[in-house]
């Protein structure tokens, strides 16, 4: 089936592109994928999206964006795009139900997925004590002991959130300092339930029935290294994200980290009518408001392009 404009992704970038494109009478079709609402729905309160002085629940924010897009005529499909051919227009997309769609313009807003350390034990205990989403799984660790890996804003946010549920939270940080913004660092360092383990790496996990602890090493690779075991019930990864760009190769260009390259400050990918918006093309900011803005830009570019062909 042919569509004028397809938007892939249902985070702030995808929904905002749909709002702008719908309002421009482009009747966009949006592929929502496995996680409607995108990465934002795995956080709790969004405190820094303008317009909500008391903050807003992340799911509510995304529901509102979706409704706004629907009001302007966007059609939603619950599918994932698994493969594409962007060699010429019309562009071809294949979905997870094996159906095929074509389009004249495409907005890629597929976001980024959580990274893991690469330990075999992460796979072994996935869903049995290992998680990359505190908001999704924190509930299971009420009054228990957990560890969060990472020293960025995500890790600090997750550690703070978990401290409202768990009795004790360890933050495992590989360097001797946190990379997070000052306000997040302060919240972590002043939280009596959180203990930061600086210069510490994880070698593995252990447990008979799910995670019961982690094998840690202080200062891996240095002479004064110390290995020890830490008893924990849950192990949360918060070490960054990997952009969901693979399925658009080799048609779009990516940088060394996998983020889709765009032209200057625009969402243009270099392929006519194909745009990349949000975290899939943003190695720096990864903020809902910035993703939303880039979605708006992509829709405006798509409108101009569709009017010109
Ligand atoms: P970052 O890339 O900022 O931080 C990743 C952290 O994980 C770093 O401390 C890094 O260590 C550590 N890390 C990476 N790989 C490993 C590894 N293999 N072993 C151990 N530690 C590892 O990612 P975030 O997801 O925290 O944040 C991404 C962006 O989103 C940032 O710009 C951030 O500001 C923003 N953000 C903003 C929020 C807010 O404003 N409320 C909330 C969440 C994110 P090292 O420092 O040594 O490299």
Layout of helices and strands:
Layout: E1 2-8, H1 12-23, E2 29-31, E3 45-46, E4 56-57, H2 58-71, E5 75-77, E6 81-85, E7 91-95, E8 100-108, E9 112-114, H3 120-124, E10 130-131, H4 134-137, E11 145-149, H5 153-163, E12 168-172, H6 182-189, E13 194-197, E14 200-206, E15 213-218, E16 226-231, E17 234-237, E18 241-243, E19 274-276, H7 288-308
Parallel strand pairs: 1-2, 1-8, 2-5, 8-19, 10-17, 11-12, 11-17, 12-13
Antiparallel strand pairs: 3-4, 6-7, 7-8, 9-18, 14-15, 15-16
Q: What are the main properties of this structure?
A:
alpha/beta; 7-stranded mixed sheet; FAD/NAD(P)-binding domain; 19 strands; 309 residues; elongated; 27% strand; single chain
Short description:
By secondary structure, the protein is an alpha/beta fold.
Please characterize this protein's 3D structure.
It is a single chain. By secondary structure, this protein is an alpha/beta fold. It folds into two domains: 2-113 and 241-308, FAD/NAD(P)-binding domain; 120-237, FAD/NAD(P)-binding domain. Helices cover 24% and strands 27% of the residues. It is built from seven helices and 19 strands. The protein has helices spanning 12-23, 58-71, 120-124, 134-137, 153-163, 182-189, 288-308, and strands spanning 2-8, 29-31, 45-46, 56-57, 75-77, 81-85, 91-95, 100-108, 112-114, 130-131, 145-149, 168-172, 194-197, 200-206, 213-218, 226-231, 234-237, 241-243, 274-276. The strands form five sheets. Strands 1, 2, 5, 6, 7, 8 and 19 form a seven-stranded mixed beta sheet that branches. Helix 5 runs parallel beside helix 6 (182-189). It is elongated and about 65 Å long. The two termini are 19 Å apart. The mean pLDDT is 94.
């Amino acid at each position: 089936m042919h569509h004028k404009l397809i938007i892939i992704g249902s985070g702030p970038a995808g929904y905002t592109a749909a709002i702008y494109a719908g309002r421009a009478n482009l009747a966009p079709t949006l592929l929502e994928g496995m996680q409607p609402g995108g990465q934002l729905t795995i956080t709790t309160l969004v405190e820094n999206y303008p317009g909500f002085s008391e903050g807003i629940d992340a799911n509510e924010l995304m529901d509102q964006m979706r409704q706004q897009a629907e009001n302007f005529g966007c059609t939603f499909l619950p599918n994932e795009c698994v493969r594409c051919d962007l060699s010429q227009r019309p562009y071809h997309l294949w979905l997870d139900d094996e159906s095929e769609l074509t389009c004249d313009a495409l907005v890629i807003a597929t976001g980024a997925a959580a990274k893991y350390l690469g330990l075999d034990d992460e796979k072994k205990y996935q869903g049995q004590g290992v998680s990359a989403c505190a908001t999704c799984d924190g509930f299971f660790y009420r009054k228990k002991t957990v560890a969060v890996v990472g020293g960025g804003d995500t890790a600090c946010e997750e550690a703070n959130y978990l401290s409202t549920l768990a009795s004790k939270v360890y933050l495992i940080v590989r360097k001797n300092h946190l990379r997070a913004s000052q306000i997040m660092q302060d919240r972590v360092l002043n939280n009596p339930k959180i203990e930061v383990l600086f210069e510490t790496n994880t070698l593995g996990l252990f447990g008979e029935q799910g995670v019961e602890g982690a094998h840690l090493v202080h200062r891996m690779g240095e002479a004064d290294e110390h290995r020890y075991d830490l008893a924990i019930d849950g192990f949360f990864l918060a070490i960054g994200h990997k952009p969901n760009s693979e399925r658009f190769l080799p048609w779009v260009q990516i940088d060394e980290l996998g983020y889709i390259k765009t032209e200057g400050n625009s969402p243009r990918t270099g392929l006519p009518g194909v745009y990349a918006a949000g975290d899939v093309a943003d190695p720096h900011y990864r903020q809902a408001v910035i993703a939303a803005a880039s979605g708006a830009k992509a829709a405006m570019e798509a409108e101009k392009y569709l009017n010109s062909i």
